[in-house]
Amino acid sequence: MNLRFDTTLARKYKSKSQIARVLTEDWLARNMYCPICGEVSIKSAEVNAPVKDFVCNKCKSQYELKSTQRNSDSYDKKINDGSYSSMIERITSMDNPSFFFMHYDSYEVNNLIVVPKCFFIPEIIEKRRPLPPSARRAGWVGCNILLQHIPAFAKIPIIKNGQVLNNKDVCRQYQKVFALQTKSVESRGWLFDVLKCVEQLDTTFTLKQMYSFVSTLKIKHPKNNNIEAKIRQQLQFLRDKGIIEFLKSGQYRQIKTI
Length: 258
Hints:
The protein has helices spanning about 15-30, 85-90, 165-180, 185-200, 205-210, 215-220, 225-240, and strands spanning about 45, 55, 60-70, 80-85, 100-105, 110-115, 125, 140-145, 155-160, 165, 205, 245-250, 250-255. It is an alpha+beta fold. It is globular.
């Protein structure tokens, strides 16, 4: 995997944002494999496809790329994106894309992660203020991706501080995370919220500690009148998927990932 951009493509453009978009998207199309099925390459999607930049020819998985000029593996808490309504429509369709988040500097990729689509829920999409009447697209409403709200477990590294990680390890980790895909946006939200609670605890934790989040989860899921039972259900699901392990009555342990 060559981490350098093809800077000859920049000659056609003057806008810095256009140059960044062209160089980063060209790099991904030439160098990135599909982390879901392992296909050696992915292709650019059709022009102006909503919330979708790339597609895998083999498994038809969809991806979007968000890039930032920075020489660090520490990602922003929120990432600017496009139309709020388009984003919400796509991520609630169960046919939403996974996301690549890239850092680059001096025309070279230094960090790249992928977040599986099952971790995109409406709660991590922040609605921005409408553009003012004086703007060319007056009234248009954009959005931010609240990256800090996504569980660390779901941010799968592909390139870290200029080092390319083994693609088989990346695909293995993606499959482990992607196995958490659910059949509805509601169940996706429950899984997301319980995982965030687990990540706030030590590697070894208890059911009693998980119950300390009941009041928080009740606010997020006001229609559910049996939060404790839902927590137990989600812990069992995470155990069955190999994310946590059951130690003994009321005790669990998080399983280390790459």
